[in-house]
Specification:
CATH class of one domain: Alpha Beta
CATH architecture of one domain: 3-Layer(aba) Sandwich
Shape: globular
CATH topology of one domain: Rossmann fold
Oligomer: single chain
Number of helices: 27
Radius of gyration: 26 Å
Largest sheet: 5 strands, parallel
CATH superfamily of one domain: Response regulator
Number of strands: 5
Helix content: 55-70%
Distance between the termini: 54 Å
Structural class: mainly alpha
Strand content: under 5%
Strand order of the largest sheet: 2-1-3-4-5
Length: about 550
């Protein structure tokens, strides 16, 4: 029997993912010879993903290439990393016959612990495992700080190891930069990434610079950084994620869709990238492309925590448009099942309500449809009613109108939604696209966004005339009436700038803060095709995040 790798190896849990039974058997035997106490085997990558979503493993040995159209081991790692389902303590080693530099580099970008080429020897596997487990022990203090949500301390430890050029300093630098971004220290993160680049021009560091520039509102430099990186590394899929995020933020939806298409082409079985492509194609009216991408995402991952159930809402719209009652019923059944697992999720409740209304309309139950719509529109001023909910409700109202159901209050509801959420040209256009099923509604949304701009200009006219208190009061009054985040923020900034010249500044400040506290979070641009993930990031998996992702299928709004 081979000598145990280390004294703790007997408590180790390992997962082997390989479609070849002979390869699995050899790897299992070698692991047991090293002293690994528990070995689980999977022949299909989807089965492995489900295992990794509900159980923790100390070691994962994963084949790179799978047959029968299944996605690659690299895509599995990428999706796990995105969804915060892979602890830092887990050793992930890719086993493959691919010996090209491109594949080795691709694996390194996924923050792998090792890369083992077939055919391999037990000695080679043992060396990879020993090295990876040693790194986990050396960086244990950093990982423990992250698990405890002590991000400031974890960042300090990373920076210290980087500056001291301690063992595994480059890996620590990558984690440290992610922590700095999470702590809203974009300039410090950019400096760290640039220091890494000065040592080695690594693609992940260049991407980190772009992300830091974006977080610091440096859109033009970020775009130049990304264009240069993609030009040098056209196969680096994470770079397309960040470029797409930049383009969406700037309202360049057509360019963003093309970017997401390229990302999906590079990783054709990535659930999150398919959802990005499908969602944006939906809003741009590319119905066939949207349906195809979202259907594939659902087929690959509807039972996965990586799947965003917003995709089923968009698919339900397609089924309604096609008058496919059975397909629409399947969407509703899947959403209802998800809600049974997370009955407190306000987000899932809204999804079920929207899709149920479409289903009622196909059944010609007009009275029930009208009642359902009135119930949903009653939430328009709710503090938890967010931009995603607004887009879905606009889509519903537009689709019902195109199906010749005319609702008396529809135009009022459209105006209320648009005035609340169309705080920028980008958001206004996204909302207009959501209402695109009935072009007059889309134009009402665009007109409302222009109205917000006019209200802001009128209020600021008071400031130009030296009437700063009147400007703040006008912005506050319109902000309270519309719940528009732009107007509320302008009131706050104007008050801060002219505080000394306004007699009741303290009272106005309290009123503005109360509005911002209640309504600011709902104004954020939703992630296209995924929920709560920073494009291009190395996920920092804390104990709190793990608990949240295991408890709920989808977060409550």
């Amino acid at each position: 029997m081979t000598q145990p790798l280390d004294r703790d190896i007997g408590n180790c849990r390992a997962l082997i993912i390989d479609s070849n039974p002979t390869s699995r058997s050899i790897l299992a035997t070698q692991l047991r010879d090293f002293g690994v106490g528990h070995v689980v085997q999977c022949s299909r990558i989807n089965d492995a993903r489900r295992q990794l979503e509900v159980r923790e493993f100390d070691v994962v040995l994963c084949d790179y290439h799978f047959h029968a159209g299944q996605y690659s081991g690299q895509e599995l790692l990428d999706d796990l990393r995105r969804a915060q389902l892979l602890p830092f303590s887990t050793v992930f080693i890719m086993v493959t016959a691919e010996a090209s530099y491109a594949k080795v580099a691709e694996a390194a970008e996924g923050a792998l612990d090792g890369y083992l080429l077939k055919p391999h020897t037990a000695t080679a596997l043992g060396a990879r495992l020993k090295q990876a487990r040693h790194r986990k022990r050396v960086l244990k203090d950093i990982f423990e700080a992250i698990e405890a949500n002590a991000f400031d301390e974890a960042a300090r430890l990373c920076l210290q190891r980087f500056h001291d050029r301690g063992e595994f300093w480059l890996y620590a630098a990558r984690i440290g930069a992610e922590l700095l971004l999470r702590l809203d220290r974009a300039k410090d993160a950019q400096k760290l990434y640039e220091a890494v680049i000065a040592t080695q021009a690594l693609p992940w560091a260049r991407l980190g610079v772009a992300r830091a520039q974006l977080d610091d509102s440096q859109s033009a430099p970020a775009q130049r950084t990304l264009e240069s990186l993609i030009g040098d590394q056209p196969g680096y899929a994470d770079a397309y994620d960040v470029m797409g995020r930049l383009q969406v933020d700037q309202g360049q939806f057509g360019q963003a869709l093309e970017t997401y298409r390229q990302a999906s082409a590079l990783t054709p079985s990535s659930i999150t990238r398919l959802q990005k492509q499908g969602a944006l194609a939906f809003y741009l009216g590319e119905r066939e492309e949207s349906t195809k991408a979202l259907e594939r995402a659902a087929t690959l991952g509807i039972s996965s925590k990586m799947f965003d159930f917003q995709s089923l809402v968009l698919l339900a719209v397609a089924r309604f448009h096609e008058r496919d009652s059975k397909g629409l019923q399947r969407c509703l059944d899947n959403l209802s099942h998800a809600l049974e697992k997370a009955p407190e999720s306000a987000r899932l409740k809204r999804f079920v309500a929207i899709v149920s209304t479409f289903h009622l309309m196909l059944q010609r139950q007009v009275g029930a449809v009208v009642a359902a719509v009135k119930e949903q529109t009653a939430e328009l001023r709710d503090e938890h009613f967010d931009l995603e909910a607004a887009c879905n409700l606009l889509t519903l109202l537009a689709q019902l109108r195109s199906a010749e159901l005319e609702l008396d209050m529809a135009e009022d509801w459209i105006d209320a939604l648009a005035l609340r959420f169309a705080s920028t040209k980008t958001l206004g256009e996204l909302l207009a696209r959501a209402a695109g099923g009935h072009p007059p509604y889309a134009e009402r949304v665009r007109a409302a966004q222009q109205r917000i701009t006019e209200l802001a200009e009128q209020a600021m006219g008071h400031s130009l005339a030296g009437q700063h208190a009147n400007a703040v009061r006008a912005l506050l009054e319109q902000g309270r009436a519309t719940l528009n985040g732009k107007l509320i923020d302008m009131a706050r900034l104007s008050l801060q700038r002219h505080h000394a010249q306004i007699d009741d500044a303290a009272t106005l400040s309290a009123q503005i803060d109360e509005l911002r506290t209640r309504y600011a979070a709902a104004q954020a641009l939703p992630a296209i095709g995924e929920r709560g993930r920073q494009a291009g990031g190395l996920r920092l998996r804390s104990a709190q995040a793990v608990a949240a992702v295991k408890v709920a299928v989808s977060p409550a709004a």
